[in-house]
Amino acid sequence: MSIIFVSAFDILDKRAPGTPEQFRELHEAVFSIRHRVKQHMDTGIQPREIIPVRGLLRAAEVAEDVVGNIVGQLAA
Asked: What separation, in Å, do the N-terminal and C-terminal C-alpha atoms of the chain show?
């Protein structure tokens, strides 16, 4: 779980990379994190794990929205 935690917050803190391909790679990484966190929630995690996982899910959603908007602007 610590790998997902670090990855989600690295993405939130990361400054915009330089190329459209780097934006797409970043967006794919965020989607992957969000998917893995949801899988953990769906498999029945322990109650003490719910708070950090929900926090990570929200962080991933925010990052996905931000990066998705940037990718959309680049594609337009």
From this structure: 36
Tokens of 70: 């940037």
Question: How many domains does the chain contain in total?
Answer: 1
- Alpha-carbon torsion angle 15, 20, 25, 26, nearest 10: 20
DSSP 44: -
C-alpha–C-alpha distance, residues 45 and 47, integer Å: 7
Residues 67 and 27 sit within 8 Å (Cβ to Cβ): yes
Where on the phi/psi map is residue 26: left (φ > 0), alpha (ψ -120 to 50), or beta? Answer: alpha
**Are the beta carbons of 18 and 73 closer than 8 angstroms?**
no
Residuewise pLDDT in 10s, the chain (76 residues): 444 444 555 555 555 555 677 677 777 877 777 777 777 777 776 555 555 566 667 777 777 777 777 767 767 6
Amino acid making up residue 50: I
